[in-house]
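Subgroup meeting minutes
Present: P.N., E.W., G.H.
Scribe: E.W.

1. P.N. recapped why we're keeping a running log of single-chain structure predictions: easier to compare across weeks, and new members can see raw inputs and outputs side by side.
2. G.H. added today's entry (340 aa).
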Amino acid sequence: MADEHAPDRSSSVVRALEAITGPWTKMNLLSWILLIGGIFFIKGCLIDQYSVPTGSMETTIHGDPRFFRGDRVLVNKWMYGPRIPFTTIRLWDWGGPKRWDIVVFRRPNGTGPKILVKRVAGLPGEQVQIKDGALYINGQRTDPPPELRDVIHYTTAFEAPPEQLKAMFLKLARVNKPLVLLSPPDDATLQLYRDMNKFHARASEVSLDRLTPEAIDKLCEGVSPISLDVVQRLYAREQTPLEYGVRPEPEFSQVPPGHYLLLGDNSGQSADGRVWGWVPQNNLYGRAFAIWWPLNRRRDFTGFSHTWWGMLLLYGIPAVLVALEFRHYLRERKRRTSPT
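Output recorded in log:
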């Protein structure tokens, strides 16, 4: 026989849930439906935030896949036309991005993160070619705006960062044997072999995989820049070849209608449109217009914070929401304290 005085666990669970959701009534259910629908509409069609998973947009945007380590950008999803949430289907097309816009998009193919942040380099119908660090559109050199000229330098091959090149050199020095890929050796290769022999003992005494960047720098003091250039050539040969916007054939240089060439600012270490090609306009989620986190890296890319609508977005809407909550609090307080 059940204990009539035992606590009803099901009713306890219901009370706990109601403390979070409110009373289980049709009106409250409708409120939750409207709230969730509003969130989906705002995030899917108006504005959303995204983390940046890689360092391909350094130094403009700091990328890091770890939780809350990389920059978080705000994205205007209304600018190019609203899309059905969780799809690439655009309800209306209000025009595409301009060159040098920073966009968030779904990569059309390839491995790795699916949602990326890059800069628009090539527009639909253009003939695009990267030469000598510059972008050529329809045969004419097209320089970025003045504020970006110290930031953007496009490459036609991957480049390893200095600390990675030095770590690769130390591994070669530890083995200290001629490389088949560098046969027959030229003067630069012979310089590399001399440095490998010189640093062989040093590289053999340490665990290279455990060295900090500072320790690697110290170990490599005196290595010829010529040797590191040869290591860079070896690194580039092992990477995926860069084709789109690099090779002159029409299939690699002519941007199709309704597509874009999107490149990373950190060109030497950016797996971008040069690898996986043109991006359809419907894959664009929107324009990244600001970094909102971390606070010490807050940045406005488009000048929106100096416009009336930007001020309304930043301060007006939050102020209205706070005012509504405060009004609701005062009404509830008055109701509880008024005599029945």
